[in-house]
C-alpha cells in the first residue's frame, strides 16, 4: 500500500497529541494558527486523528494472496477500523455498522477475483465510502428522518478517546459537504495518499487535492465561528 507521503501529501509524523503533517500541507495557506512547518492548527488536529485508527497502513504486512487468508481474518483485523471510518462519514454507530456489514458481504462475493490483501482492503474501503454515500442519500430523501442528536450521534467509543480539540474538529467536519468530508477522513484518519483517495472516492487526483484544500480552509472558518 502506498504511504500518505506520496502523490502530494506530506507524511504524518508523531507528536505530542498523535500525528501532525510534516511541512506545508494541503490547505495550509488558508487556515489560521500556522505552526513552524507552515501547517495550520486545523491540519495539526486533523493529523492527530490518525492515532485513533486501529489499523496503521504503514504497519500492514506485505500483500498476500486472498486465498491464503479468510474473510474471518480480515473481519477480525479490519472491522473496527472500517466502522470508525464509517462513523466519521455517517455520524452514528448503527448506520456505520450496517455500512460495514454490507461492505464485507460484498467482499465475500468478490473474494475470488481479488489479487491480494491490499486489493481486498481497497475494495472494503471503497465499499464503505459508497455505502456511506448511499446512507446519506437515503436520509435526505426520507421524510421521517430525524438527524441524530449531536451529543449522542457518534458512539461513546469513537468520542471518548478524543480530546476536546479532536471532538471539536470532528463535529465541525459534519458541516462540510459530503465529498469534502470523505477526502479529509480518508487522508487524516485513513492516512491515504491522493492516489488511494482517488481510487476510493472515484475522483481524479487533481479533484482530491483541490477538494482537500477547500475543505481544510472551510473547516478552519467553521471552527473560528464556533469560538467567536
UniProtKB/TrEMBL annotation:
Residues 1-42 are annotated as: Disordered. InterPro entries: RNA_pol_sigma-70-like (IPR039425), RNA_pol_sigma-70_dom (IPR014284), RNA_pol_sigma-E_actinobac (IPR014325), RNA_pol_sigma70 (IPR000943), RNA_pol_sigma70_r2 (IPR007627), RNA_pol_sigma70_r4_t2 (IPR013249), RNA_pol_sigma_r2 (IPR013325), RNA_pol_sigma_r3/r4-like (IPR013324). This is SigE family RNA polymerase sigma factor. One of its GO terms (molecular function) is sigma factor activity. Residues 167-219 form the RNA polymerase sigma factor 70 region 4 type domain. Pfam families: Sigma70_r2, Sigma70_r4_2. Keywords: DNA-binding, Sigma factor, Transcription, Transcription regulation. Residues 20-38 have a biased composition (Gly residues). Belongs to the sigma-70 factor family. ECF subfamily. GO terms for biological process: DNA-templated transcription initiation. Residues 74-140 form the RNA polymerase sigma-70 region domain. It comes from Nakamurella aerolata.
Amino acid at each position: 500500500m502506498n504511504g500518505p507521503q506520496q502523490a502530494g501529501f506530506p507524511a504524518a509524523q508523531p507528536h505530542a497529541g498523535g500525528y501532525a503533517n510534516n511541512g506545508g500541507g494541503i490547505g495550509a495557506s488558508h487556515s489560521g494558527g500556522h505552526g513552524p512547518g507552515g501547517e495550520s492548527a486545523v491540519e495539526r488536529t486533523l493529523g492527530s486523528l490518525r492515532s485513533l485508527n486501529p489499523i496503521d497502513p504503514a504497519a500492514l504486512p506485505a500483500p498476500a494472496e486472498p486465498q491464503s487468508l479468510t474473510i474471518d481474518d480480515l473481519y477480525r483485523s479490519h472491522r473496527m477500523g472500517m466502522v470508525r471510518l464509517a462513523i466519521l462519514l455517517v455520524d452514528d454507530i448503527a448506520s456505520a455498522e450496517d455500512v460495514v456489514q454490507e461492505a464485507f458481504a460484498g467482499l465475500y462475493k468478490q473474494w475470488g477475483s481479488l489479487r491480494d490483501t491490499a486489493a481486498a482492503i481497497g475494495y472494503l474501503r471503497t465499499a464503505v465510502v459508497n455505502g456511506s454515500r448511499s446512507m446519506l442519500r437515503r436520509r435526505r430523501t426520507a421524510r421521517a428522518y430525524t438527524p441524530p442528536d449531536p451529543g449522542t450521534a457518534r458512539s461513546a467509543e469513537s468520542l471518548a478517546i478524543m480530546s476536546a480539540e479532536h471532538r471539536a474538529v470532528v463535529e465541525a467536519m459534519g458541516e462540510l459537504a459530503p465529498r469534502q468530508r470523505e477526502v479529509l477522513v480518508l487522508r487524516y484518519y485513513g492516512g491515504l495518499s491522493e492516489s488511494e483517495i482517488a481510487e476510493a472516492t472515484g475522483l481524479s487526483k487533481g479533484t482530491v487535492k483541490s477538494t482537500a484544500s477547500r475543505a481544510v480552509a472551510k473547516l478552519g472558518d467553521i471552527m473560528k465561528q464556533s469560538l467567536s
